Amino acid sequence: MTAKKQNKEIQKIQELENNWKRALADYKNLEKRVEEEKREIFLFAKETIIKEMLPVLDNLEMLQKHIKDKGLELTIRNFEATLKDLGVKKIETTDKEFDPKTMEALEIVEGEKNKVIKTVLEGYLINEKLLRPAKVKVGKGGNKNE
User: Are the C-beta atoms of 113 and 140 separated by less than 8 Å?
Assistant: First the structure.
């Protein structure tokens, strides 16, 4: 075998090896993209389902205010514990400064300026992402002490 022919064969082998490495890298990147897309789809589905369930919790809590039933109270606690296990966290609003990123002001009322006076509807985060803003009444201030 001539040196020239041997050199061409070595180049061909190197070219095939480089193509194989590129194809393998492309395949690994594709696997990563597919896994990320699966994760995003799962999170989207989870968020969608939880958003659909929140009005049920709202109704149970509203009912509890009127009938004060121990069984209903346990059901609500169980519901909230399940949401917590899924990464859902209630937005703290009581005596807090109004935060437009996590709250929606429904009304401006008498009270300390920019403080949440009343929570009308609870807001929730899921894994630190806003799921539903808290609907609140906010103080307008205006008193000499404020």
Answer: yes
User: Could you give the C-alpha distances from 31 to 35, 72, 77, 142, in angstroms and in order?
Assistant: 6, 46, 40, 59
For 143, the enclosing helix (H) or strand (E) is none
Could you tell me the CA-to-CA distances from 70 to 75, 105, 130 in Å, in that order? 9, 32, 31
Question: How far, in Å, CA of 128 to CA of 146, rounded?
Answer: 32
Look at residues 137, 127, 117, 119 and name the one whose alpha carbon lies nearest to residue 40.
127
How many Cα atoms occupy the beta-carbon half-sphere of 40 within 13 Å? 6
Structure tokens at 39: 């994760």
Q: How many residues does the chain have?
A: 146
pLDDT tens-digit series, residues 36-92: 999 999 999 999 999 999 999 999 999 999 999 999 999 999 999 999 999 999 999
Q: In the CATH scheme, what architecture does the domain 88-146 have?
A: Roll (2.30)
Phi and psi angles of residue 35, each rounded to the nearest 5 degrees, phi first: -65, -40
